[in-house]
Each structure stands twice: as structure tokens, then as C-alpha cells.
Amino acid sequence: MNICVFGDSITWGAFLPFRGAWANLLRNYLETINPFIALYDLGVDKDTSEEVLKRFEPEAESRKPDLIIFAVGINDSAYRKTKDNPVVPLSQFENNINKLIETAKKMTESIFFVGLVKGDDSKTLPLPRSTTGKCYGKDNVRKYNTILQKVCTKHRITYLDIFQLLTDEDFDDGLHPNLGGHQKIFEAVRRSLLKSGLLTS
């Protein structure tokens, strides 16, 4: 069984020790129950749904996935100066997610979406490391999370809402979950995949 996980820096675990991110924790778990499962962590730093859409088809097709997991949207919601000017507008984000699902369905019916984490506004308005004043705010993230849920419901895709899962203590920089945060995400993803039947223990 081949599993492809597409996402951003939260997927691959920015600022964490090697294999500390939720996708890698899922890989570690799967390796203990079935040596024939291969999980490919295809998270790329700073990726929005635009970038994921551009690279999705060739990267997925080459790995012949049986299950595709998406975790994307945080970077789409980011903005500079005003919330009304996000990196990827809501309407375009919705269109991109629809296209990702439609393309993924050509490869497999087993598709799973991980919702967005809310972060800690006290550290992300703006993000301290940003040289351009990039902001990540809960209010905007919530809007993109709602779109994800709406589109997944329309396509009858399993969607895991983790917006309220993490607390401020689960973030070191306000945006990227720390080891404790990733452990919570992994546990939630594992439970949801098993409950939905997309994985068997």
C-alpha cells in the first residue's frame, strides 16, 4: 500500500528533530503494523494550494498511491497589512481544493483531508521571522478551514477537523506545532483513518 501525504512545512515538521512531524509519526506507526505500507511525506515549506496543485499530479502518479492525504491551507490564509488581501483568495482556494480532489479521484477513491491548526495570534500578527510583515490569524484560518470542510462534504471525502485540537502551548513560534502538538495531530489522524476504514490496524 502506498500513501502520499501532500502539505506544507507543518506536514514535514519545520524546526523539529528528524522524523518528529505527524506525517513521519504516522509512517513510524505504519511500519510497526505492516512492513508493506510505504508513506511518502510530500510536504514542502511555504506551499499553498496553488503550489500543491501544480506538483500534485506528477508527484502522485509516480508513486501510484492507494491513499492520498492532504494537509494544506495555512499558507493560503496568510496576509500582509490587511485580512482582505490573503495570499490565495477564498474563492481561488475553494477552486484549487475542488481540482485537487477531482485529480486525486482519478488515482484512488481513498482520500483524506487534515484540517487546519489555529495557531497562536500573539506570535503570528505578524510572524516574527517574516521580513514582509506576513500575518497568520485565527479568524482567517477559520474561514479556510470552513471551505475545506464544505468541499470535502460535497465530494464525500473524509475530513478531520483539528482546529480546536491544539493549545497555544503546542506551538513554539505560534505557527508551527512543536513535538507535543505533532503528537496530538498524529493521534487524531491515526484514529480518524482507522475509524473511516481508510486504514486497518
UniProtKB/TrEMBL annotation:
Q: Which domain of life is it from?
A: Bacteria
What Pfam families does its record include? Lipase_GDSL_2
Please name the GO terms that the record assigns under molecular function: phosphatidylcholine lysophospholipase activity
Query: Residue ranges of the SGNH hydrolase-type esterase domain?
Result: 5-183
Q: What is this protein called?
A: SGNH hydrolase-type esterase domain-containing protein
Per the UniProt record, the source organism is Candidatus Chisholmbacteria bacterium RIFCSPHIGHO2_01_FULL_52_32
